[in-house]
Amino acid sequence: MEKKKGKKTTGKKEHHLWKSRDSAQSGQKALALVRTVYKLPNEKEAVYGALDKWTAWETEFPVIAVSKALKILRKRGHWVRAIQVAKWMISKGQGATMGTYDTLLLAFDMDKRVDVAESSWNMIIHAHIRSVFADMEELRVKPDEDTVRRVARAFRELGEEEKWKLVIKRYGLKWKYIHFNGERVS
């Protein structure tokens, strides 16, 4: 019988206090969160308090479960609750992703709060556009043409002509025409 060299195992399992973000059980957690927020009055303090209590004993913020809950709320058309959960998640410094922002902006629009959606969009653009482009430049990644076009359009719509010109100058923009129902659109 050959002996293995190296680490000797005793058959005991190691236990860690911090667990990795595991998507197992996140579906049940998401449904529990949705059920919890359904029962609450439409008050920010009540919703945020319940959500804080819901995460109180978690070792890590349950990003996956909250994201799934947002998808459920979006699918069911519960726009006010989707707004509350998304804003709470962002206020905790979690889930600042395009998916969360997309759900938040859609929920504002569906709740007939276009003015809030517009101001939120402006906040998102100001908070994240500079860092995205700075990261891309640092890594020497040239954005694709569609990204350049969207960022340039966003700066122009925000009235930031200097930033618009800088994006066009730095990354170039070839004009391309798309045909829709036989007509050329740019």
UniProtKB/TrEMBL annotation:
Region (Disordered): 1-23
Organism domain of life: Eukaryota
Compositional bias annotation for Basic residues: 1-16
InterPro entries assigned: EMB1417-like, TPR-like_helical_dom_sf
Protein name: Pentacotripeptide-repeat region of PRORP domain-containing protein
Lineage: Eukaryota, Viridiplantae, Streptophyta, Embryophyta, Tracheophyta
